[in-house]
Each structure stands twice: as structure tokens, then as C-alpha cells.
């Protein structure tokens, strides 16, 4: 009987690993940018291309940077949540319009509602690369000192918003 | 065959011509730089299609990152600096060959440890087998009894078959 105990133990350990592995999402690669200052950039605003925006101007405020595009299907999924969030909270959301056509982007916002304090156009996706963007939509929570505190890869969900993003914003607002 | 090749070339020229003209990516001109660019791109994982390198993938992000590599080579950056640029943004996961760190020790040592474990288990099994005493040979009486029993069995079998 005892000779079966060792293989059975090994089997149980393997089962444990496989079971945990089943729930991991290989698409969610932890970002090395968490805890680092937000990458500096200057980009034209989507609605007023003559005006520029730079993260420097957000110092002293907790804000969200949401990477979106009109060609992105998951962005449509999360959009109502963001619109709702913008209505009910005083947190600035800056949209990084990633590799999009400004005309398409503006039409998309006109149709679905614009939750953004402002959006900036990253036509070539260079700022996206600085943010380590690889799957639009992505959302960053940035604190008053301009440090990235959280990154949501993929669409923002109700769970992520209620469970992580909102509590974090409240905590950062106190600090 | 030759006509087929000619047709293919014509088609390729027609398709490749305008596409090449629209290509925003400046390809590295100098062959040494081009080789470096491809070698770097092969080492880096495309995060959109994770089982392809940046060199193989045609995902937009891979195209953009190849452009980054070419630009940085042109700007005189070293390979280490370019790889550093990628890991600063995307983490060690972009490297197909992850660096040896506290967090990756198990990854590097794991196969060796498993092999060691397997060798130990095998050695134990072999030693146990060697320690098992060899079967004692039958005495004359036992042998005679065994032969008789086997014969009876064979006879019974023959009867049953009839």
C-alpha cells in the first residue's frame, strides 16, 4: 500500500499545479511599470489637436489613463462602465486614443458617449509602447505623485472597478 | 516551370510594389544592422501572439517593435540597451531566454532537479531489486511433484478439449 503513496502524492501536487494553472490568464503579463513614474509624453488632444497634453499637468491628482481605440471590440464592452464611472465620480479619466484615426475616434465618442476628461491621439502607438501596451483596452491608475499604481489589462469589469480600482483611488486620494 | 516563375514574379512585383511604397517601417539598409535587427527580434516574444517572436509575428505591435529596434540600431544603441528598453516596458516575459534571478531560479534549476530526483528514484529501485534474494532452487522431491502436477493438468486439459 505504502508504495503507492509516493506516486499518489506526486500526482496530487501535479493536480494542484494544473488546477491553479487553469485559472491563470497567460495574456495578463505583470507590468514592470507598476510603482514607476508615469512615462513622460506630449501628445495633441483628440478634440483640439492644437492643444497638447502631458502627464505633468496631472500632478497632485489621482487619475486614470485608459488606452482605447475605435477599432477595438473590447473597448465597446467596457465603455458603458467608463461612462457611468465618469458620471458618478470626480476622477479624471484621460483617454489615450491608440493607433486610431481621429475622425473615427471622434465619431465613436459622439455615438457612445465621452467619459474622458480629454483624449490624446497616439497615432503611431509610440506612447503606447512606452506604457507597455500590448492589448487594448488597458487602464492605468496613477497617483498624485505621478506614479503608476495599478494596471488593468483588457476591458475594465464591474469586479475590477468595485474590487480594485475604486478602493485604490479612495486610498490614494487620502494620501 | 519558367513561365510559372515569371507569373509569380509579376504578381509579387504588382502586389509587393505598392505595399512596399506604403511601408512606414524603415528597414535597416546596412546588412550588418539588418542582421542585428533580425537577431534581436528573434529573441523577443510578441505579447499579442505569445508563441511567436517579434521577428515572426505580423501583429501590429510586432511591426511597431521591429521599427523601434531598427530606429534604435540606427541611433547607435547597443543590443543590451535595446533589450533593456523592451524589458523596462514589457517585463522579462518578452525575453524567450529569461535572466537568472531569484524569481526564475526554479525555472532554470527545475529540469536539473527533476533529473536528479529521477536518478535517485531509479537507483533506489535498482538497489531494492538487487537486495531481493534469488529464488531457492527446488529439491528433487519438489521437482518430481511439480512435474506430476503439470502432467495431470495437461491431461485434464486434453479431456476437456474432447
Approximately what portion of the residues of chain A adopt beta-strand conformation?
15-25%
Low-confidence stretches of chain A: none
**Total beta strand runs of chain A:** 7
N-to-C order of helices and strands of chain A:
HEEEHEHEHEEH
Query: Which H/E pattern describes the elements of chain B?
Result: HHHHHH
Q: Globular, elongated, flat, extended or rod-shaped: what is the shape of chain A?
A: elongated
CATH secondary-structure class of the domain at 22-99 in chain B = Mainly Alpha
What oligomeric state do these chains adopt? heterodimer
- Number of separate domains of chain A: 1
Q: Residue-averaged pLDDT of chain A, rounded?
A: 92
Any overview of this molecule?
The complex is a heterodimer of chains A (175) and B (162). By secondary structure, chain A is of the alpha/beta class. Helix content of chain A is 39%, strand content 19%. Chain A has a single domain, classed as Glutaredoxin. Chain A contains five helices and seven strands. A five-stranded mixed sheet of chain A has the order 5-4-3-6-7. In chain A, strands 1-2 form a two-stranded antiparallel ribbon. The radius of gyration of chain A is 20 Å and the shape is elongated. Among the domains of chain B are: 22-99, Helicase, Ruva Protein, domain 3 (Orthogonal Bundle); 100-131. Chain B has six helices and no strands. The A-B interface holds A 26-27, 29-33, 99, 124-126, 129-132, 134-135 and B 24, 47-48, 50, 60-61, 64-65, 68, 87-93.
Amino acid at each position: 500500500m505504502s508504495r503507492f503513496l509516493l506516486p499518489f502524492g506526486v500526482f496530487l501536487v501535479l493536480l494542484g499545479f494544473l488546477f491553479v494553472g487553469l485559472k491563470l490568464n497567460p495574456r495578463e503579463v505583470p507590468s514592470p511599470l507598476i510603482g514607476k513614474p508615469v512615462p513622460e509624453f506630449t501628445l495633441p488632444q483628440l478634440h483640439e489637436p492644437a492643444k497638447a497634453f502631458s502627464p505633468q499637468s496631472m500632478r497632485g491628482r489621482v487619475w486614470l489613463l485608459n488606452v482605447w481605440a475605435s477599432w477595438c471590440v473590447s473597448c465597446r464592452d467596457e465603455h458603458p462602465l467608463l461612462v457611468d464611472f465618469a458620471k458618478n465620480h470626480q476622477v479624471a479619466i484621460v483617454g489615450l486614443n491608440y493607433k486610431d484615426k481621429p475622425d473615427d475616434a471622434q465619431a465613436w465618442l459622439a455615438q457612445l458617449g465621452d467619459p474622458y476628461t480629454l483624449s490624446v491621439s497616439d497615432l503611431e502607438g509610440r506612447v503606447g509602447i512606452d506604457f507597455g501596451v500590448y492589448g487594448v483596452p488597458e487602464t492605468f491608475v496613477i497617483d498624485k505623485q505621478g506614479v503608476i499604481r495599478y494596471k488593468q489589462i483588457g476591458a475594465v469589469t464591474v469586479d475590477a472597478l468595485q474590487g480594485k480600482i475604486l478602493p485604490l483611488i479612495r486610498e490614494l486620494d487620502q494620501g | 516551370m519558367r513561365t510559372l516563375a515569371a507569373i509569380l514574379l509579376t504578381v509579387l512585383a504588382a502586389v509587393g510594389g505598392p505595399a512596399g511604397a506604403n511601408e512606414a517601417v524603415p528597414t535597416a539598409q546596412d546588412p550588418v544592422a539588418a542582421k542585428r535587427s533580425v537577431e534581436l527580434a528573434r529573441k523577443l516574444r510578441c505579447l499579442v501572439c505569445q508563441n511567436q517572436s517579434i521577428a515572426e509575428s505580423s501583429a501590429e505591435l510586432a511591426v511597431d517593435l521591429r521599427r523601434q529596434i531598427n530606429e534604435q540600431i540606427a541611433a547607435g544603441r547597443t543590443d543590451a540597451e535595446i533589450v533593456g528598453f523592451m524589458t523596462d516596458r514589457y517585463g522579462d516575459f518578452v525575453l524567450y531566454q529569461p535572466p537568472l534571478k531569484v524569481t526564475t531560479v526554479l525555472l532554470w534549476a527545475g529540469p536539473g532537479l527533476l533529473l536528479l530526483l529521477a536518478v535517485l528514484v531509479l537507483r533506489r529501485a535498482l538497489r531494492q531489486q538487487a537486495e531481493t534474494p534469488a529464488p531457492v532452487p527446488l529439491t528433487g522431491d519438489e521437482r518430481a511433484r511439480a512435474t506430476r502436477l503439470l502432467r495431470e493438468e495437461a491431461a485434464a486439459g486434453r479431456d476437456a478439449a474432447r
